[in-house]
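explain this:
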Amino acid sequence: MIGCLVIIAVAIPLIVWYVISKCKKYDLKELFLKTSISLLFVVLAVVATLVSGKFTLLNGLVILGLVFGLVGDILLDLKYVDIERTKGYSYGGFIVFGIGHILFITALIATYYQKGGIWFIVLPILVAIALAFVTILMEKPLKLKYGEYKLISFLYAICLFGTCAFSLFLAIQNNFSIVSLNLFLIGALLFAASDLVLSGTFFGEGKERPIDFALNYATYYGAQFLIAFLLLLA
């Protein structure tokens, strides 16, 4: 437990440092700093697994999902450094993060689904698709411009909201009695909140203010570190 808390304690000031630095400029130093922070949530997941003394399918899939998150972080920030390949890095980021969410969803179903409740599988899928459609339909009201990223944004939104929906419906199926699942739900919601803010900075105008960066990274890293930490309790 102490080791996990130390990792989180180290990460917090680094996140603050990163946000402040990104508000001023962006170069390889900031990319290295962000990579270091993201590496810490992977390390936290590994340490939490070792401390718990258990290595289940949940642990393996969550750790792998976090690794994909680390890779996604690198790809999305490389577009600020290597601007000639922005499109490729952006698509890569969407795909890698999408795979990460699919791994999370798989972990949720394999670990928490109670056989016989097929609607707890069907409904989350329907909700995720519906919310993805809503996300795309809100493009103009929110003054966003998805452009050529509309399809990949839609597909990614299904994966993102799938994590939220499955963690919610499976928590309901288990009567919110499983602490690790409840934490997964909170983490998934934080992840969604982060991406909603991020969509404004990616596809909107005038939404690259310090407060936008702060909200984005506070919710994003809150999600990733919480999902990593829950392995201690699973």
